[in-house]
Specification:
The complex is a heterodimer of chains A (about 190) and B (about 160).
Chain A: H1 2-13, H2 21-45, H3 49-52, H4 56-66, H5 82-86, H6 91-100, H7 102-109, H8 116-136, H9 140-143, H10 158-168, H11 175-178
Chain B: H1 2-22, H2 82-85, H3 90-93, H4 142-146
The chains are: A mainly alpha (about 190), B mainly alpha (about 160).
Chain lengths: ~190, ~160
């Protein structure tokens, strides 16, 4: 085993005798573009709604619930995709989220929520995951579209102004503190603050 | 005499379809659309969102909802109304607290929180929209009746304590 590693190490260390430096550098550059592009394309493909709703767990539960809400169905037709709220836009955060999503693949393979009953059982836990994430990043995924600086309080209702101009403005609260259940149904809220 | 009255009533009842044929009957909700055709449903109303509390028409009237409640979830899992109107949330939300009667069970015992029989808020509290009522309302506020000048024809003076 040690010999095998040593042999490949010597091959790797030895300068190339047949291929030119230009071929190697340019070839590596092109291969890099191809691999990086391919990787990104594949990752973006996992951000599409078709991918998310490809499994019945998502299609029949959370996606069905989304369709009745303002983030899917509204007067102007602007809508949010799954990834708009559930995948960070920033690259490192996105990578971290995608790695964390490997647990969701595990759940899919072993059928953690493959029936409606099991989904309902896990609803609070699933919701808690997202609430915790949004609380930790100051509702970043909300703010990707809903910018506080662009909110016109004169066009909001009195209730909204009261909440937004005080607790949101001071940073004491973040979007998700009040707007839980905005895009999916709430779990059993007993004991949830 | 009673039999005579009954007979007349039955006769009128039998004749009524013939009598009604002359005049066009219109349902306020259906309008002039014939019964065998589907009506065009009215536009969905835009509910009042002014947050101005309205006065109640009588003391026991459940207060109406002066804001939009579209998409509010009230089911086994969650009650969106109680996220602001519950006792523990009112300081933060500045919303009126649910009335004390809502903590009582039907035997009058006070419970720690909202009584299950009061759970579905929309059974009594409803949002308002600026619409023309389909049925005219002749409701008169009790104060209006009490302050009416006595001896008006058809309005006997209400019994008042001297």
């Amino acid at each position: 085993m040690k010999r095998l590693i040593k042999r490949y190490w010597t091959i790797l260390r030895r300068p190339s005798t047949h291929l030119s430096l230009g071929f190697l550098t340019i070839g590596a550059f092109i291969a890099g573009i191809l691999f990086w592009g391919g990787f990104n394309t594949a990752m973006e493909a996992t951000n599409t709604e078709a991918f998310c709703t490809g499994c019945h767990e998502m299609r029949d539960n959370v996606y069905a619930e989304l369709q009745n809400t303002i983030h899917f169905n509204n007067r102007s037709g602007v809508r949010a995709l799954c990834s708009d709220c559930h995948v960070p836009h920033n690259w490192t955060d996105k990578m971290a989220r995608k790695m964390a999503a490997s647990k969701e693949v595990w759940g899919k393979i072993f059928g953690t929520i493959d029936t409606r009953e099991k989904f309902e059982e896990h609803r609070l836990q699933l919701a808690n995951n997202e609430w915790r994430r949004l609380k930790a990043n100051n509702s970043l995924e909300c703010r990707n579209c809903h910018q506080f600086e662009s909110m016109d309080f004169t066009k909001q209702s009195k209730r909204a102004v009261n909440a937004h101009s005080t607790q949101l403005a001071s940073g004491e609260k973040t979007c998700i503190d009040c707007h839980k259940g905005i895009a999916h149904q709430l779990p059993n809220m007993e004991g949830v603050r | 005499m009673t039999t005579m009255k009954n007979l007349t009533a039955i006769l009128l009842l039998l004749l009524s379809p013939l009598l009604a044929q002359g005049q066009e009957f219109q349902d306020r909700m259906r309008g002039a659309v014939p019964l065998d055709q589907t009506t065009q449903p009215p536009q969905i109303a835009n509910p009042d969102n002014s947050d101005v509390r309205r006065s109640r028409n009588y003391a026991m009237q459940p207060p109406v909802v002066p804001h939009k409640i579209e998409g509010y979830q009230i089911d086994k899992n969650a009650n969106r109304c109680m996220m602001c109107h519950a006792r523990t949330r009112t300081q933060e939300s500045q919303a009126p607290m649910i009335s004390v009667t809502h903590f009582m069970d039907r035997d009058g015992n006070f419970l720690a929180e909202l009584s299950p029989r009061r759970y579905f808020c929309l059974q009594c509290h409803v949002p308002q929209a600026n619409l023309t009522p389909l049925v005219n309302n002749r409701f008169v506020d009790v104060d209006t009746i009490l302050n009416q000048p006595a001896n008006q024809p058809g309005n006997p003076a209400p019994a008042r304590k001297k």
